[in-house]
Design brief:
By secondary structure, the chain is an all-alpha fold. Helices cover 77% and strands 0% of the residues. It has seven helices and no strands. Helix 4 crosses helix 6. The longest helix has 33 residues. It is extended, with a radius of gyration of 21 Å.
């Protein structure tokens, strides 16, 4: 987390103000700090994955195993449809007239609603043919329909 906060200072202070880089140059993943940050992020994700594997092998609760399995099935679909859920959230927030500090405290609720909404939409598409193609998991085949009718 500390490294991710460091990227803000690295981007704003070092790259934009001191070096005077353009925005596309300042956000390049080939920056030395970003190389170090990316390496540590990948190592952290690998470590968390290994910890999850050990936990799963040693008796993780069944409901959690099922939830992770379902999320894994539609994770790409969640990535694809999150824009729709974000647009709905933007529309809902535009109808509110609350101070900025209230919106700041509502950030976790907004994040959870986008994750839950995109999962729900992706799960619907996964389960109901012919919507599977919207999440990259086609669940409807014309050939199967023709074979069933014969």
């Amino acid at each position: 987390m500390l490294l991710s906060i460091g990227t803000i200072g690295y981007f704003r202070i070092w790259n934009l103000k001191i070096l005077g880089l353009a925005n596309d140059q300042a956000t390049s993943p080939h920056q030395p700090y970003m190389l170090f940050f990316d390496f540590l992020t990948i190592c952290t994700i690998f470590f968390v994955g290994k910890q999850y594997e050990a936990w799963r092998d040693n008796g993780m609760p069944e409901w959690l195993t099922t939830g992770v399995s379902r999320i894994a099935k539609v994770s790409f679909g969640m990535y694809l449809n999150q824009t729709i859920i974000l647009m709905i959230l933007k529309w809902l927030l535009s109808m509110l007239s609350v101070p900025d500090w209230v919106l700041l405290f509502m950030l976790p609720l907004g994040w959870l609603s986008v994750v839950y909404g995109s999962f729900t939409f992706a799960w619907f598409c996964y389960k109901v043919p012919p919507f599977g193609f919207l999440i990259g998991r086609p669940n409807f085949s014309v050939r199967k329909v023709v074979l069933k009718q014969s």
